[in-house]
Amino acid sequence: MCNNLRMDADSHVCGRTPDSQFVELAVEVFGMLADASRVRIILALRDGELSVNQLAEAVDKSPAAVSQHLAKLRLARMVTTRHEGTRVFYRLENEHASQLVSDAIFQAEHSLGGTPRHHHTRNEASA
């Protein structure tokens, strides 16, 4: 439970302090996403559920390899399943994994130097 919650400061929102009990769990989340295939799977699932074969095609991996990654993502509660007959469809458990991946890609764009593409889009939208 969050005993250090203060309504007047964003930095003290539950789980966002350096001494948070969730820091180690957050590191595990980053570790789960420290694999290009799993990041690609998260990206492929942003628009809705897909079967293993559809995901395999989308990320250019074998269905067996994708199944192994999906099992890990499922254990980490990043994806969930829906069964339809003998087929299994995967979808994101919530928006957080997708947001983490998007933010990581935005950060990666910064490493290229110059003004990242995602900043151009924001500036053009507000003009």
Structural commentary:
- There is one protein chain.
- With 127 residues, the chain is mainly alpha-helical.
- The protein has a single domain (37-126), classed as Winged helix-like DNA-binding domain superfamily/Winged helix DNA-binding domain (Arc Repressor Mutant, subunit A), CATH 1.10.10.
- It has 6 helices and 3 strands.
- The chain has a 3-stranded antiparallel sheet with strand order 1-3-2.
- Strand 2 (79-84) and strand 3 (87-92) form a beta hairpin.
- Helix 3 (52-59) packs across helix 4 (63-75).
- The longest helix is centred in the C-terminal third of the chain and has 15 residues, at 96-110.
- It is globular and about 45 Å long.
- Keywords: DNA-binding, Transcription, Transcription regulation.
- InterPro entries: ArsR-like_HTH, HTH_ArsR_DNA-bd_dom, Metal_resp_trans_reg, WH-like_DNA-bd_sf, WH_DNA-bd_sf.
Our Rg estimate from Cα atoms comes to 18 Å
Distance between the termini: 44 Å
- How many distinct helices? 6
**Count of individual beta strands:** 3
Low-confidence stretches are: 3-9
Element-level helix/strand string = HHEHHEEHH
The average pLDDT score comes to 86
Helicity, as a percent range: 40-55%
Fold-level CATH name:
Arc Repressor Mutant, subunit A
Most strands sheet: 3 strands, antiparallel
Query: How many distinct folded domains?
Result: 1
Dominant shape: globular
CATH superfamily: Winged helix-like DNA-binding domain superfamily/Winged helix DNA-binding domain
CATH architecture heading: Orthogonal Bundle
Domain HTH arsR-type: 18-112
Keywords: DNA-binding, Transcription, Transcription regulation
InterPro entries: ArsR-like_HTH, HTH_ArsR_DNA-bd_dom, Metal_resp_trans_reg, WH-like_DNA-bd_sf, WH_DNA-bd_sf
GO molecular function: DNA binding; DNA-binding transcription factor activity
